[in-house]
Amino acid sequence: MQSPTGREGRSKPSHVFDRGTEWDGLTAFVGRTQPHAMLGIVSGRRRMGKTYLLRALVERHGGFYFGATAGTATESLRQFGAALAEHVGSPVGFSFATWDDAISYLFVMAVPGKGGLRGGGGSDLPCLVVIDEFPYLAKTAPELPSLIQREIDRFQATESRMRLLLCGSAMSVMGGLLASTAPLRGRAQLELVVRPFGYRAAADFWEVADDPALAARLHAVVGGTPAYRRQFLANDVPASLGDFDDWICRSVLSPLSPLFREARYLLAEEADIRDIALYHSVLAAVAQGNTTRGGIAGYIGRKSVDISHPLNVLEDSHLLTRELDVFRAGKSQYRITEPLINFYEAVMRPAWARLESGQAEEVWSRSAERFAAQVAGPHFEAVCREYVLGPGRSLLGTSLGEVGGGVVTDPKERRQIQIDVAVLEPGSGGNPPSAALLGEAKWGTVMGVGHLERLGRARELLAGRGTDTTRCVLACFSGAGFSDALRAEAARIGGVLLVGLDELYGRSMPAGAFE
């Protein structure tokens, strides 16, 4: 069976939700016509749907898929030989003595005229090979990257139709495949990270886009991980905002739910994490609002230098991110990137014993303030920055620069003004940097004129320090709404955006949008 070509081969299957960009990148990689062996790296944390996506790709292009499992080198090699034999129609499994033999044979099968892999056998069509959960194999056979590098290099001078995709969920391992002096450095033509759905796509996936208040709360807990709805909760979706509390208790806080221990499993699955207690303490520190390196170290009782390794590992695992202060060089804060882990550390872990004994309703009833301050609030700020990067980009009427947050110091008033959403553009040709947007985000607060005045003061301070603010928009983001006085003031002075949940989820345009 040959790989399909043309529109049918490129179009995304209807059962694959969203992932248009990822599908286009994968099909473009497979369809490249150069007669050389090519390598692609596909990574992403667990539950993101990587396997689902790659199986659809293999089905569409008639390729060979091998999903590795945890096991010894000998067992894994035997499984690989059996799967390859089944793919090519051999009545008996291939018996490879070493991975060297297996990889050499695999690449030879993709040579035109040698036959074997579908798409080869003298055709001009590519041979797609997917090795999923590659870190399992590399753990027991660390020579594998070097063996693949040798074959990739060999088939740059010799004709080959090989299109090899290595996929894995251990982010630190996958990231290391192409790093520094790693054997595969400079060999890949595709490096794809499958990320969680964006907040709007997640609302569509959970079918709650018509209720932004519910969608925002749901996303603050489970984020954009597709497996949580279908595989974990069997499509148990909160019916309405009024059902959200009951849904939390039955689907996340219940010891009978697969999501109950998921945050712990996500951490334990990372290959480079050894001292689980230390890493949970680091994440708990961030969830409690200690977002600087010094704050984290103080919370867990360590020196700042002693937490460098766990911070680096959590960053490499895509569980933690360091966000630079766009106004103060050298300053940064850490943020947990996986909403379910943040929810676990802020709400579940402090009450773990009571939750295990079935007291979900009692724990949740006492967690409203903590959920708002430590979960929904910080998450809302991140969503607002995502909005500016994506759906709200056209509102600025300018090219998008650096998007982030930071602190503007007001020495006269002896205070610091927190800017949750900022868009800055670096200067060029001797021109000063410019600020395109300064915004404040409040999850549970009805925003008033005072919030706008604070943003205006920050704009004045930046202008006094040489930043061009002539086209700087002030933006108020709120999950609870805006006062009539703020709406009137915004309309009077102009250059102000008011963005609520309806605007974030595309149900209406922001007040003050530019013509």
Structural description of this entry:
The protein has 515 residues and is an alpha/beta fold. The protein has four domains: 6-193, Rossmann fold (3-Layer(aba) Sandwich), CATH 3.40.50; 199-251, no CATH class; 262-366, Winged helix-like DNA-binding domain superfamily/Winged helix DNA-binding domain (Arc Repressor Mutant, subunit A, Orthogonal Bundle), CATH 1.10.10; 392-504, Trna Endonuclease, Chain: A, domain 1 (3-Layer(aba) Sandwich). The chain is 43% helix and 15% strand. It contains 23 helices and twelve strands. The strands form three sheets. Strands 2-3-4-1-5 form a five-stranded parallel β-sheet. It has a five-stranded mixed β-sheet with strand order 8-9-10-11-12, sandwiched between helices. A two-stranded antiparallel ribbon has the order 6-7. A hairpin with a 7-residue loop joins strand 6 and strand 7 (332-336). Helix 10 packs across helix 20, helix 14 (276-287) crosses helix 15 (293-300) and helix 14 packs across helix 17 (339-348). The longest helix has 22 residues, at 368-389. It is globular, with a radius of gyration of 26 Å. The protein starts with 5 loop residues before the first helix and ends in an 11-residue tail after the last helix. Residues 1-8 have low confidence and may be disordered.
Which topology of the largest domain does CATH recognise?
Answer: Rossmann fold
Number of domains: 4
Query: Which structural class should the secondary elements be placed in?
Result: alpha/beta
Low-confidence stretches: 1-8
Distance between the termini: 55 Å
Q: Write down the Rg.
A: 26 Å
- The average pLDDT value, as a whole number, equals 90
CATH class placement of the largest domain: Alpha Beta
> CATH homologous superfamily of the largest domain, by name?
P-loop containing nucleotide triphosphate hydrolases
Number of strands: 12
General form: globular
